[in-house]
């Protein structure tokens, strides 16, 4: 009997083993097919390097640069690429205003004057220590010796973060998009994951990863601070700020990051390193540590290792340029049942005008500029803003005349905001994969711009004098010439600008 049982048991075990092996092979084939289907769009495309942004008032293109990813195209100009609304916009007189000469105190940072030979024992040259991954660096008081990020820091002034015609800007954008990353660590604070990336020349960038599809719409029933930060929104915000002529958002570039090589293998952050894992379909994922959205349920995953992200140039360290945080008077209540004070008090704006620091200088009109920017990009979570302590309270309802004129200009067909934004965003490296903003987003910009202009018109109708609504930051003869020029270019169905 036992002999008979053995004769039937062996074939049965063999059959079960073959069946198990076949099932494992089938599961592996299905996993690979899912992985291939998920990651084909990213792996099949080689990201392009960023093209140099067109300079306001610059009509002759600079020579292109060459990098490992391919040709680094020159600036987009009307002379180089047929009709360009973006180039025409930056050549308009409103974007080539004569600049005030910067005084000593208008610069955030400056290179110390060279000391007398008797006052020093060594050269004024800064030489870096030998450090793995970093370039040997020799800096002195000559601008040519400074890397692009340092030139950006030294170019920050009381009025703007960068000059649109500064030749260091294209070099900085190229660094953010193509330079080797030697370090990646978590940035403390905030509700969502952010990393600080370091480059061989000691420059740094703030990394924000792709968390959802670019075209994915937020559920309208969600509360306004429940949405994820979007990497393409960071890129679009920089371009919008530049198109508006504010230049108060640091340069931002999109980049395709290799999660394994450029984060996992080089990070010295143990808390970050412990959160890496491989998903069931073979994608490399991590989630880090932060207040709210850092958990396996909100993991950030490559495809299988490639990950879209935004990289923003870092501002100077707080030890060099301390900043002060201010509560936004028009912040949300952050309550699901209570209204904010500005939502209940009809004279709230009048109260703000009489309150420090908004009762002097240009702080109020700077805040209005920031509010217009937030409205155009639908940012409803501006609870605080920052200023550099060095510039006091005089740096950062009225609207600047220059801002109003630019908004009117961007409402005209030949400079339509959606068109110039669409064109500007094509300069980013990630635009080679898919548009950074979908058409509904671009159309929304035009719709919101129309709303802003309508509100200004209503305010003008409610006040007897223009000065009650428009803050004149332009000289009278320049303002009048721009006004007449805009009226000539305005179609019959548009309201002429009120002088």
UniProtKB/TrEMBL annotation:
GO terms for molecular function: ATP binding; metal ion binding; phosphotransferase activity, alcohol group as acceptor. Residues 1-28 form the signal peptide. Keywords: ATP-binding, Disulfide bond, Glycoprotein, Golgi apparatus, Manganese, Metal-binding, Nucleotide-binding, Signal. One of its GO terms (cellular component) is Golgi apparatus. One of its GO terms (biological process) is enamel mineralization. ATP binds at residues 192, 208, 229, 312-315, 386. Its main location: Golgi. PANTHER family: DENTIN MATRIX PROTEIN 4 PROTEIN FAM20, FAM20 C-TERMINAL DOMAIN-CONTAINING PROTEIN. Transmembrane segments: none annotated. Residues 276-398 form the FAM20 C-terminal domain. This is Family with sequence similarity 20 member C, like. Its cofactor is Mn(2+). The active site is at 381. The keyword Ribosomal protein does not apply. Mn(2+) binds at residue 229. Pfam families: Fam20C (PF06702). Belongs to the FAM20 family. InterPro entries: FAM20 (IPR024869), FAM20_C (IPR009581). It is found in: Golgi apparatus.
């Amino acid at each position: 009997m036992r002999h008979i049982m053995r004769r039937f048991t062996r074939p049965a075990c063999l059959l079960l083993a073959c069946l198990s092996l076949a099932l494992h092979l089938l599961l592996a084939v299905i996993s690979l097919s899912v992985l291939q289907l998920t990651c084909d769009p990213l792996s099949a495309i080689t990201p392009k390097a960023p093209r140099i942004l067109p300079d306001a008032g610059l009509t002759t293109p600079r020579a292109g640069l060459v990098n490992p990813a391919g040709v680094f195209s020159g600036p987009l100009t009307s002379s180089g690429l047929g009709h360009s609304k973006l180039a025409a916009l930056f050549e308009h007189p409103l974007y080539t205003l004569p600049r005030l000469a910067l005084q000593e105190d208008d610069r955030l940072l400056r290179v110390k004057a060279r000391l007398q030979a008797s006052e020093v024992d060594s050269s004024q040259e800064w030489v870096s220590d030998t450090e793995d991954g970093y370039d040997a660096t020799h800096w002195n008081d000559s601008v040519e010796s400074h890397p692009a990020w340092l030139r950006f820091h030294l170019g920050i002034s009381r009025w703007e973060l960068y000059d649109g015609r500064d030749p260091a800007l294209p070099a900085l954008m190229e660094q953010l998009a193509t330079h080797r990353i030697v370090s990646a660590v978590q940035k403390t604070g905030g509700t969502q994951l952010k990393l600080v990336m370091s480059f061989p020349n000691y420059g740094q960038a703030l990394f924000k990863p792709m968390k959802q599809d670019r075209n994915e719409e937020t559920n309208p029933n969600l509360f306004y601070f429940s949405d994820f930060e979007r990497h393409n929104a960071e890129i679009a915000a920089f371009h919008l700020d530049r198109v508006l002529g504010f230049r108060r958002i640091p340069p931002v570039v999109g980049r395709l990051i290799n999660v394994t090589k450029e984060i996992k293998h080089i990070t010295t952050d143990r808390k970050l390193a412990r959160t890496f894992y491989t998903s069931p379909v073979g994608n490399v994922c991590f989630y880090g540590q932060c207040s709210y959205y850092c958990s396996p349920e909100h993991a950030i995953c490559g495809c299988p290792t490639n990950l879209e992200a935004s990289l923003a140039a870092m501002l100077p360290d707080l030890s060099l340029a301390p900043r002060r945080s201010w509560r936004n008077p028009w912040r949300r209540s952050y309550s699901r049942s209570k209204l904010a004070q500005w939502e209940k008090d009809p004279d709230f704006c009048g109260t703000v005008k009489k309150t420090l620091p908004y009762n002097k200088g240009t702080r109020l009109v700077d805040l209005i500029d920031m509010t217009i920017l937030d409205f155009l990009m639908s940012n409803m979570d501006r609870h605080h803003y920052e200023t550099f302590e060095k510039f006091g309270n005089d740096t950062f309802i009225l609207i600047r005349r220059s801002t109003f004129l630019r908004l009117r200009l961007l409402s005209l067909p030949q400079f339509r905001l959606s068109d110039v934004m669409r064109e500007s965003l094509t300069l980013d490296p990630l635009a080679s994969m898919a548009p950074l903003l979908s058409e509904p987003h671009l159309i929304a910009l035009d719709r919101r711009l129309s709303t802003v202009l309508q509100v200004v018109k209503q305010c003008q109708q409610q006040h007897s004098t223009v000065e009650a609504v428009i803050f004149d930051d332009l000289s009278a003869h320049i303002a009048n010439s721009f006004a007449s020029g805009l009226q000539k270019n305005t179609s019959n169905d548009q309201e002429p600008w009120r002088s």
